[in-house]
Amino acid sequence: MCGIIGIIGKDDVAERLVEGLRRLEYRGYDSAGVATIHDGAIERRRAEGKLANLVKELDRDPLPGTTGIAHTRWATHGAPTTNNAHPHATKEVALVHNGIIENFKALREELTARGRVFDSETDTEVVAHLVSELVEQGISPKDAVAQVLPRLHGAFALAILFRSSPDMLIGARLGSPLVVGYGDGETYLGSDALALAPLTQRIAYLEEGDWVIVTAGGAEIFDRDNNPVERPITISGVTGELISKGNHRHYMLKEIYEQPVVVAQTLRSYLRRMEDQVSLPVPDFDLGAIRRVTIVACGTSYYAGMVAKYWFEQFARVPVDIDVASEFRYRAPVMEDGGLMIVISQSGETADTLAALRHARSEGQKIAAVVNVPTSTMAREADLLLPTHAGPEIGVASTKAFTCQLAVLAAFAANLARAKGRLDGKAEKELVRHLAEAPAALNAALAYDESIEAMAHLVAGARDVLYLGRGPDYPLALEGALKLKEISYIHAEGYAAGEMKHGPIALIDDKVPVIVLAPSGPLFEKTVSNMQEVQARGGKVVLISDYDGVQAAGEGCIATITMPKVHPLIAPMVYAVPVQLLAYHVAVAKGTDVDQPRNLAKSVTVE
Ligand code: F6R
């Protein structure tokens, strides 16, 4: 989603601002812009589309100035045009904004009635006018911002530039993250530490309601009641190196290939291999008191939660509710004492998931957060932080975060089972052994990359594709369909294989490829029966199974993809690989923008 960077520098900053934006590109955006102060005036350059267009603007008309702000915009209010691109500016003030100002209509009417003229259709521009209006009356930038912030409803991260104070920026956050970076005689603002990685590793994370005055010498931070506060400076550990594509053509492919290593890395925090035991990074959390689990997440993270529901119920015999985060609060969920909410989120910032977390907390639930960004808002607000160690995920389509989430959730379910007296030493040892096999099995699954590439054309020409699975492979079918639609733009649906004959089977004809996920195991026979129902109606099946499964049921399929034979516990992790690779190769065959698919954002910080 939108990205922010601000620099108070020693030299001209435009080039470094654009470099920062480049590092934020992965979040998804459709226009971009930069503003600096030069010769006592605010100047800006903006462009719709990719950053290359902004760079052309800057080449044509360079932007000097040692203090500046920049933004990548993912359109919410108003089309992705140059006029709607940030920074929004008046003569006195320029600002960039992530989030949504929910009361912007009322504010805009109020400002228009006072004669202010708007240039854009955005919600953001009201903030520029509100601050500017006060500054024009002679009120200091600091007091102007302090007066305006309480008037804004919704979610925001802001970085504001003032013509009258060229050596200062003001930042603010509520609902959308913002960090301060401390350099050598320079200070920065960024929507995440990644944007600032080439500039500094010394980062302070603003808390909800904080705002900050940034100068070259440092930062003065205030809480929502305007009291000066200290926020610790941490070393982010994010380096420029981490986000190179290496030898891969796309970030997505690199991240698919990283899975054996990052899953192993993640499991290391949750397994004690020497003792054959599962463990948690926070050992003193009282798991025995948990009577019910509610899982809430969005998109791919939600599908990881769907798989985990099987594990929690099977191992720990604890009832599990699961909701898409955007729906959770609106069905008046009943939450009782002894309830644990598990939020699952790669970014740890997804607005709907965060709102669900806060709602559950207000209803007395304990909160566990399975997140990939340990400094994220969810990580900071949870009682029990369960990090995935996937490293930065840059491809918009989530891959390695998913398999790492599964690894954490399987280990967590086992911990809960043990705390509930449902897992004896022998069963625990077995479980640890199977989980520990996951990295090697993921590696073995990657070996089929070329054969998946070779059959991708069978899917690339389709208009519609179905994915079928049963049990924990049903969420995998949903995940496969999501991956395919988001990066190849082919319409795809995932179904529980047994549900086909209750309606969707009417869609079957020889133009709809049906991808069947059927690892050997207790549900294999039933899945194959459903697959045969499809074949009997002329459906073209691609079977993904292990060698035994392909031998038993591969005949009559248009293609088969052979996976290593694995224990059912780790099958959802291993079968994620072929669905990711299939979507990837189909997208490459279709020539789409794999890493930044149209209309999508990486971290969805608006509801
Ligand atoms: C799909 C995808 C999205 C995210 C979803 C939740 O490939 O990436 O569906 O899974 O937006 O994001 P997080 O996990 O950051 O909360």
UniProtKB/TrEMBL annotation:
Segments forming domain SIS: 281-422, 455-597
Keyword Transferase: yes
Compartment(s) of residence: Cytoplasm
Keywords: Aminotransferase, Cytoplasm, Glutamine amidotransferase, Repeat, Transferase
Catalytic reaction equation(s): D-fructose 6-phosphate + L-glutamine = D-glucosamine 6-phosphate + L-glutamate
E.C. no: 2.6.1.16
Residue ranges constituting the Glutamine amidotransferase type-2 domain according to the UniProt record: 2-217
GO CC annotation: cytosol
Active site: 2 (nucleophile), 602 (for fru-6p isomerization activity)
MF terms in GO: carbohydrate derivative binding; glutamine-fructose-6-phosphate transaminase (isomerizing) activity
Claim: Cytoplasm is one of the keywords in the record: yes
GO BP of this protein: amino sugar biosynthetic process; carbohydrate metabolic process; fructose 6-phosphate metabolic process; protein N-linked glycosylation; UDP-N-acetylglucosamine metabolic process
Role description: Catalyzes the first step in hexosamine metabolism, converting fructose-6P into glucosamine-6P using glutamine as a nitrogen source.
Subunit-structure text: Homodimer.
Protein name: Glutamine--fructose-6-phosphate aminotransferase [isomerizing]
Organism of provenance: Sphingobium quisquiliarum P25
Gene name of this polypeptide: glmS
